[in-house]
Amino acid sequence: MKYLATMALALVPLTSMATDLTIPAGQAYLVGVDQQELILDKLNIGDDARISFAPGVNSWRVHARLANIGKNVVIDGRGSAGQNGAPGVTAPACDEFVDGQPGESGQAGSDGVEIRLQLALESLGSMEIFSAGGDGGLGGAGGDGADLNTKCDAEVAGEGGNGGDGGEGGRGGDVTFLYQSVAKTESGDSMVSRLSINADGGAGGEGGDAGSGGAGGGGYYATKKTLTGSGRKWVAGATGGLAGSPGVMGSAGKPGRILVDQLITSTVKAVPSSSEVSLKALQREIARLRQRIEKLEAQQGAEQPAKSD
Hints:
The protein is mostly beta strands. The protein has 2 helices and 14 strands. The chain has one domain. Keywords: Signal.
């Protein structure tokens, strides 16, 4: 879902802090933990470039005063899938236990990366942004119960182990795309029509299968050694063991919020970029701008009608 609105915000000049970032065509770029917030003069991304995120990166915020983005660009901030649960051990015949062991639960999928881009767009070929949560891991299958065995003194057939529960899906990361069009030959609306965003929640993992109960059998005579010699002894039969219960499917993760808005520069006086402006003053200006954006995002979310089941 996209919330489309028009906001009047000032693009704060940050010359003393800004730099450039160029990702060549066809190259893979890994965002590290020290690059979670970038303030750029220029952002250039070539055709078929792919951006991904190192472990530990939970969010990526980019503010660029001029951006050129090529065709088939991918920003992949999807969460990773949870680990599958191990299966339960099947009970061996004539051992100290006859019941199958339960399967382990699947692990939860990780959340998608929160992505916020604030760009003065000069060109945009096409771009896909993924911030979906990771799928939950599968529950492990329960182990089978041991069969009734005439070669040992087992008097019952084992029950099957329960299947492990599936892991929960990860939450989709919020995606915010704020843009100001500075293109000379194309409108901003036309450019962002080639932008695709997926912030779905991860699917819940399926529960593990139940273990089967062991097979029973009728009564029988068994030859037993005694102090006076060998003799025949009646051994009662047993019904088959009960099957275990299947694991419960994990719940799906919640989708992330998606906000696509056009920025219109206001008449707010720009912050001077001379050497007299302190770093703290620039940081305060950034914080004020961020608060205004988050307030407008909250208003957008409150205006959306609740979905009925």
